[in-house]
């Protein structure tokens, strides 16, 4: 190993024992363990599920304290209904947006425009993360499809060429 982090002593262009081709994209909390479900994958999924559910419950308790604060402040029923409806609608939209982002890459411009709404509906995002982690690592399906497609394309490209074309026998 060299002194620089992330570099090796193998010269450029050599394989050095590392596999050629595309590498899987790491997922948050899972790294690349989602590829072959090794390295504590099941425990990580359980931990993510418990953690996201605990965070959602804690967030709901914080929202309850905010609701009680509105009641103590005696702001009136209109404001209370407005705040509750805002959190409910934003949470539903955040759930749907987060759930959809596990199956397809979200549009960055749309994500930027929805950032405030998603921040208000954070409970919905946490619940989407919880429910998805019961099925698979959140985002695993999308990453697996992209990785397998990249592997197939790489295999197709590398299989076409075998040997040195300059040493090819000429027909007479």
In words, what does this structure look like?
This protein is an all-alpha fold and 172 residues long. Helices cover 61% and strands 0% of the residues. The chain has helices at residues 41-73, 77-101, 108-113, 115-120, 122-135, 140-160. The N and C termini lie far apart (51 Å).
Model regions low in confidence, pLDDT < 50 over at least 5 residues: 4-17
* H/E topology pattern: HHHHHH
Arithmetic mean of pLDDT: 82
The dominant shape is elongated
Please estimate the helix content.
55-70%
Q: Figure out the total of helices.
A: 6
* Count of β-strands: 0
Query: What oligomerization state is this entry in?
Result: single chain
Radius of gyration: 25 Å
Helix-strand makeup class? mainly alpha
Sheet having the most strands: none
Strand content: under 5%
Report the end-to-end length measured between terminal Cα atoms: 51 Å
Ordered list of secondary-structure elements with their pairings:
Elements lengths: L40 H33 L3 H25 L6 H6 L1 H6 L1 H14 L4 H21 L12
Helix pairs in contact: 1-5, 2-5
């Amino acid at each position: 190993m060299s002194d620089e982090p992330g570099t090796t002593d193998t010269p450029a262009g050599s394989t050095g024992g590392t596999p050629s081709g595309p590498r899987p994209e790491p997922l948050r909390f899972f790294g690349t363990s989602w590829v072959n479900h090794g390295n504590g994958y099941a425990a990580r999924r359980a931990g993510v599920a418990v953690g996201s559910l605990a965070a959602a419950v804690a967030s709901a308790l914080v929202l309850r304290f905010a609701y009680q604060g509105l009641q103590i402040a005696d702001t009136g029923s209109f404001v209370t209904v407005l705040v509750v409806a805002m959190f409910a609608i934003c949470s539903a939209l955040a759930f749907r947006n987060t759930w959809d982002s596990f199956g397809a890459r979200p549009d960055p411009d749309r994500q930027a425009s929805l950032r405030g709404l998603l921040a208000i509906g954070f409970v919905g995002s946490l619940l989407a993360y919880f429910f998805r982690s019961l099925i698979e690592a959140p985002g695993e399906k999308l990453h697996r499809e992209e990785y397998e497609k990249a592997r197939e394309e790489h295999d197709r490209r590398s299989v076409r060429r075998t040997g040195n074309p300059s040493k090819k026998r000429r027909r007479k």
